[in-house]
Amino acid sequence: MGATPQRTQAGLQAARARGRKGGRPKTLSKDKQALAVQLYNEKKHTVAQICVLMGISRPTLYKYIESARLFKK
Q1: Cα separation, 3 vs 12, whole angstroms
Q2: Structural domains in the chain?
Q3: CA 61/CA 65 separation, integer angstroms
Q4: Using an 8 Å Cβ cutoff, are 65 and 37 in contact?
């Protein structure tokens, strides 16, 4: 292995030290995630309607629902 992976890791560590985060940003804020879960729990809207309204995919909605369930426990 060359020096490139070491330089990459050093750069990532330096960025983290400056408060930078890696990865893709979340689609929805925490408030909007809570709203999506609330709409789901009210049972007045279908999953498809909630997804269109919030601009997210079905798996993303289910991920938010599952994390809300785990947070409650």
Answers
A1: 14
A2: 23-72 (1.10.10)
A3: 6
A4: yes
Q: For residue 14, what are its two tokens?
A: 């330096």
Q: What is the DSSP string of 7-36?
A: HHHHHHHHHHHTT---SPPPSS-HHHHHHH
**Cβ count near 31 (within 10 Å):** 8
d(CA 51, CA 5): 40
DSSP state string for 30-62: HHHHHHHHHHHHHTSS-HHHHHHHHT--HHHHH
Angle (nearest 5°) at CA 31 between 59 and 42: 65
Predicted confidence (pLDDT) per residue in 21-70, tens digit: 888 887 799 999 999 999 999 999 999 999 999 999 999 999 999 998 88
